[in-house]
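Thread: quick sanity check before group meeting

JM: Hey all, I'm pulling together slides for Thursday and realized we never actually wrote out the predicted structure for the chain we discussed last week. Dropping the sequence here so it's in one place. If anyone has concerns about the input, flag it before I start.
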Amino acid sequence: MKKSINIGEAAHQSGMNARLIRHYESIGIIPKPLRTDTGYRQYSETDVHILIFVKRARSLGFSMKEIKKLVSLWRNKSRASSDVKALAIQHIDELEKKIFALQEMTKTLKHLAKNCTGDQRPHCPILENLASQDGN
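JM (edit): ok, ran it. Output follows.
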């Protein structure tokens, strides 16, 4: 039988905190761990690998729904890699849209900041833009 570890050690090995691990269990991102006779969670090496996988997926910006699907695909050895690729490409498209939106926001704010005198007078094009209905 493989060695099992408690939630504190699983947290340490995965780089997550115990509260987050319990949350991921509660929403079905990771499987419920085995429990001791006294009710303590016991994690396997596989459980820790799943936690590390989830942490890495989060660092790449995948949503919880996407991560749940990715974990399912990862654990399914008969999966089609095309399913994984499709999910990644969809995520890339979403990230590119967010990047474009952030670039547009940055461009607008740079323009507004450039046109603000930044002196002691009350006139402020930044506040005027924020107060306008159309952003112009």
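AS: nice. Residues 80-136 form one domain. Strands lie at 34-35, 41-42.
JM: adding both to the slides.
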